Amino acid sequence: MTRLSGPRDESAGGSGDGPLALALEIADAVESLTHLWTVAAQGASLRLSPHQLRALRILESEPGLNLTALAHRMEMGLPTGSRLCDRLEAAGLLERVLHPRKRRELELRLTGHGRQVLDEVAARRSQALAAVLAAMEPAAREALHHGLPGFLAARNRGVLGPGAPRS
C-alpha cells in the first residue's frame, strides 16, 4: 500500500493521530478507490485507458476545444494529443469538425456513442462505489459524508501538499 514516508512507525512519529497519520490512511483508501474506479471502468462495453476517459470527460465539460487546448489541459504534447484523438475518432467517440468562424481550426466534439460510453462508465463507477458504501457501518458512512465537504473546501482554498502541482 501507499506510504507517504515509508513504513509506518507510530513510536517514531508520535501518537499516530495527526494529519500525516491520517494522510497515510487516506492514501491507502485512495489507492483502493483508484483500483475500484479502474476495474469498474474496464467492465464497460468499450474498454478505454484512463487518458482516453480523461480526454472524453474534458470534452464533455468543454465541448468544442481544439487539439491544442485539449493537449494543454491534459498536460501532454501536441503529437501525443493528436494520436489520442486519432484513436478516439477511430473508435467513433469523438469527431473533428470545422470551427464555425475559424476556417483553419478544428473543434473536437463527443459523438453520441462517446456520450453513451461516458454514461456507462459513470454508472458502473457509481454502482461499484455504492456497493462499498452500503457495506460500511452507518456511522462511518455518516462521518465520511460530513468530512468530505471540509476536505474539498481546504483543497479549493489551494491547500496543497509538498511537491503537488499548482494549476
Key features?
2 strands, two-stranded antiparallel sheet, mainly alpha, Arc Repressor Mutant, subunit A
% residues in beta strands? 5-15%
Helical content (DSSP H or I, runs of 4+): 55-70%
Low-confidence stretches: 8-14
CATH fourth-tier homologous superfamily of one domain: Winged helix-like DNA-binding domain superfamily/Winged helix DNA-binding domain
Write the topology of this structure.
Blueprint: H1 10-13, H2 19-42, H3 50-61, H4 67-73, H5 78-90, E1 94-98, E2 106-110, H6 112-135, H7 138-156
Antiparallel strand pairs: 1-2
Helix pairs in contact: 2-6, 4-5
Give a written overview of the molecule.
A two-stranded antiparallel sheet has the order 1-2. It has seven helices and two strands, in the order αααααββαα. Helices cover 62% and strands 6% of the residues. The chain starts with 9 loop residues before the first helix and ends in an 11-residue tail after the last helix. The protein has helices at 10-13, 19-42, 50-61, 67-73, 78-90, 112-135, 138-156; strands spanning 94-98, 106-110. The protein is elongated. The protein is mostly helical and 167 residues long. The longest helix is centred in the first third of the chain and has 24 residues, at 19-42. The protein has a domain at 48-141: Winged helix-like DNA-binding domain superfamily/Winged helix DNA-binding domain (Arc Repressor Mutant, subunit A).
